[in-house]
Amino acid sequence: MKYYVEFTQQIYDPEDPRTFKYAPPCVKIREIIASGMLGEIVTINHNENVLYWHFAHSFVRGNWRNTESSTFSLMAKCCHDIDLIMYWMGDHKCTRVQSFGNVYHFKESQKPEGAASRCLECPVEKDCPYSVQKIYLQGFNNAPMWPMSAVCDIEDHPAGYAVALKEALETGPYGRCVYSCDNDVCDHQMVNMEFDSGATAVMTMNAFTSDMRRETRVCGTHGELRWDGSSHRAIKVYSFATEERKEIFPDQIVPKCRIRTRGHGGADFFLMNAVTKAIAHHDPSLLSSNVLQSLTSHKVVFAAEKSRLEKTIETT
């Protein structure tokens, strides 16, 4: 559901996928770049580590597995990341993009010998890292939290939620073998971006990781910045001239009052905080994005996917 607020004939959307622009570490990185501390930006390397079982859950068995029924994985998972790179580059425009990627692993040709079409019936399930037994049932505490809540949203089953969840895995899409699904979205993809300043950026989306976080390295003519994707740990900056290493913390921290305020590393909280303040004070300057800006980064994402499919370099 979308909530629209009209300010000075512009529409702002709180569910805009530019959420990470409101995350305190991302705001601080933009400030560091704008300060000139790194000199002129030459390269940005940004990784979106999806986490192996998360990818299987959402992009192989789940709602975002198929381009025809939803969208391609770069749009579904990484429009945040392309937008972040453009946000950090400030007034410099992305002029060209090139992209590579495919379905490397989650396909029939990779299916283990003897594997069944449904996971709970599979004789080789114990050796599979994408086993639904491991992802949804092992260590289950009978609470319908994510990712179990995506599999089964029935909380009043007469035999209890655990039984309802197992039944959903026995018959529903989340119980299928990851090598026998109708998925067609990339499980890894790289996007190369060139800016009007001559700077370049690389964004890599990777399903095959042991954690679910972002990693960023920004290299300038005077220094280097590294961010480990954390909402609370320091952003590390190194000066070439002084050989000094600094640890710079975000100006704000994520409230600890409720777990829901911590979505996307706290970015969701700060996004909605900005929206409600903008509404209350009738002040659009409290928001960091509008639909026109969103359209610009979305166009780059679409251009990247076109490049991947057609093996071209696209002008943006």
UniProtKB/TrEMBL annotation:
Residue stretches making up the Gfo/Idh/MocA-like oxidoreductase C-terminal domain: 30-244
Gene3D superfamilies: Dihydrodipicolinate Reductase, domain 2 (3.30.360.10)
Any Pfam family: GFO_IDH_MocA_C
InterPro entries in alphabetical order: Gfo/Idh/MocA-like_OxRdtase_C, Gfo/Idh/MocA_Oxidoreductases
Residue spans crossing the bilayer: none
Record's protein name: Oxidoreductase isoform X2
